[in-house]
Design a protein that fits this description.
Transposase_17; about 140 residues; Transposase_17_sf; two-stranded antiparallel ribbon; 6 strands; transposase activity
Length: about 140
């Protein structure tokens, strides 16, 4: 799927789309213990695979996680986020039910808010300059 330059090649598209996501737990509660990081990453990696995306980097602390995802153009980031949040919350609640205080979390694992930033490639100023230099007279 990726070539030596990091581009994804599909039937009709060549792309390099990366997104940095940060999810925080509801009320910023530190609910994750030392047993959960590996499983959180496995769950989120599988969700990404289901979208044809690749989880490039994953890390986090007791109250949040950071993800760097390389995704195809057809994968809408908002749908990917919804699936990552929903599937991971459901699985973590099922597998670690004794480690999460459901009363203080009010039945939710993640805050409904999240951080999302496109990343990779050249800075916007360089892209603008590149496009300006390719103007052709009509």
């Amino acid at each position: 799927m990726d070539d030596e330059n990091g581009y994804r090649r599909g039937r009709h598209v060549i792309s390099a789309m990366h997104v940095h996501l940060v999810f925080v737990t509801k009320y910023r509660r530190g609910v994750f213990n030392d047993e959960m990081p590996t499983r959180r990453e496995e769950i989120m990696r599988k969700v990404c695979e289901d979208f044809g995306a690749e989880l490039k980097e994953f890390n986090g602390e007791r109250d949040h996680v950071h993800l760097l995802i390389n995704h195809p153009p057809k994968a809408a980031v908002c749908k990917l986020v919804n699936s990552l949040n929903g599937v991971s919350a459901r699985r973590i609640h099922q597998e670690f039910t004794d480690h999460i205080n459901h009363a203080i979390m009010h039945g939710h694992l993640w805050s409904p808010s999240y951080f999302s930033a496109s990343c990779g490639g050249a800075p916007l100023a360089i892209v603008r300059q590149y496009i300006e230099q390719h103007k052709r007279p009509l």
